[in-house]
Structure formats: structure tokens, C-alpha cells
């Protein structure tokens, strides 16, 4: 089958078809979404025939041998830590959700890693009704989902972006305020969903309310975080940082997000969409912050 592989940059190659385990379905892929992390932080030890990719949507062409999961012909969105960027994908039935006919598969493909990460991170803040929640990197894939989901949970959402142009559309998604970096934030916040790391994470920590919490989700800044705890102690008595890692399986959370998308209660925020032979263009746009939200590749 045809697949996108790192050799060393993204290019097409021919690799063996995946062989599903008894608890996996085989999916003919219609669309994949790219994530900043799987490109910027890819391993230097990837095999030449390794198929990367976390997010894909398509149609089941072989049902799971153990009887779990959907039947042949079902439209699905899928997650896994590899194998998405190919014509066929074998995926665990616990890592997929059925996609209704009224939902574009290309939009569904944008949901798994970014959407589920945002959903789980908002939950881990605890009750946020009426509380101030800061989202750093709010213009990115996880960030735009986090703004929407935190606002749905009743939070007063403050979106932090790198430039005024990156703020486009965030108020419509639920951001009550938009700031240019946590250093420009006025007042304190109860919760922080941080996708940037580095200095922005430190600045956000200094601005926590007593007993406030940060979910440290990403490290898009690619720099270490240095915190002056004497400075922090003078502002927040018991603020804390929690290292966020997304939890699997994804099936239930994916189904919840697909439902929101189908009902028009969530916007997939696809900022770049094109055929998969433009993968390098899409990847470069992601790495250089020229995509607002998600980048999606469609297969023939």
C-alpha cells in the first residue's frame, strides 16, 4: 500500500498492508490530520518503512475477528500512536468511534489527539463554572478545542496567542478575553491549559490563584521551563503544576466529540486542508505557525 514515511522528510513509499489482530478493524483511510508533536518531536530512530501518524478517519473494510467493533462499511474516526498516514490502517476497536453520515470525515479526522487532549485536560481542572481559565497556545489545534470545551464547561476563558493575527475567531469560539502571552494577563486565574511550555508556563504559574492548577500539556516552545519559586510563592500560596498525559482508550471521548461535532456544538477548526501529496506543505505550515487550528490531508 501507499504511505507517507519519513525518509528523512515526508515522502511517499510502498509498505506492506497492515495485518489486523483479532481486536482490530481494517480501515480504508479517507483523511488524516497532522499534529505539531508528531512532526516536531519525531524520533531520530524511525525505520525507513515505519508509518507514522496518530489521527485518521475512513471506512471499515474488514471487521474485527473477535466480533468487537463496527461492521464493514461503517464510517469511523480512529486513534493510534502510529499507522495513520497510509491507505489502510489496522486499529483497535477501543480506539475508534462511529462517524454519522452528516459529519465530514475530514473534520472527524481532526478530533482524536487534539480534541481528546483538550477534553481530558479541561476535566482534570475540576469544576470551572464561573472561574477564570487561561489557555496558552490558544490558536493551535489543542488550544482551539480547549477554548471551546472550557467555555462549554462554564469557564471565563482567556486565550493567549503569539500575535494579533493568531487571535482570529477565538472570541467566537468562547474566549472572553484574548492576551498576547501570559505576561500580559491582568489578575489571576484558577486554571491553565498550557500547550506551550517554557517561559509561558513559568509566567502562567506566577499568575495562579491560591490552589490554582496548571495542566502542562505541550512544549511547543521547545525550551526549558525555569521557575523562580520565591517569586511564585509571593503571588500564589498553593498553586501547582500537573504533568498532563492523555489517557487511552479513546473510544468514549471520541464518541462524545463526534456527537458535539454532529450537533453543531463543536467546531473542528480545520485551518489547512488539502490532498495528501501536499503533506510537506502542510507540515511546514504547522511548524512555522501558519495554521490556525488543525491541518488535514485527504486521500484520493
UniProtKB/TrEMBL annotation:
Superkingdom of origin organism: Bacteria
Name of the molecule in the record: NADPH:quinone reductase-like Zn-dependent oxidoreductase
Signal peptide stretch: none
Boundaries of every Enoyl reductase (ER) domain copy: 7-297
PANTHER family: QUINONE OXIDOREDUCTASE PIG3-RELATED
Source organism of this protein record: Nonomuraea africana
InterPro entries: ADH-like_C, ADH-like_N, ER, GroES-like_sf, NAD(P)-bd_dom_sf
Record key words, sorted: NADP, Oxidoreductase
Pfam families named among the record's database cross-references: ADH_N, ADH_zinc_N
SMART domains linked to this entry: PKS_ER
Gene3D superfamilies assigned to the protein according to its UniProt record, in alphabetical order: Medium-chain alcohol dehydrogenases, catalytic domain, NAD(P)-binding Rossmann-like Domain
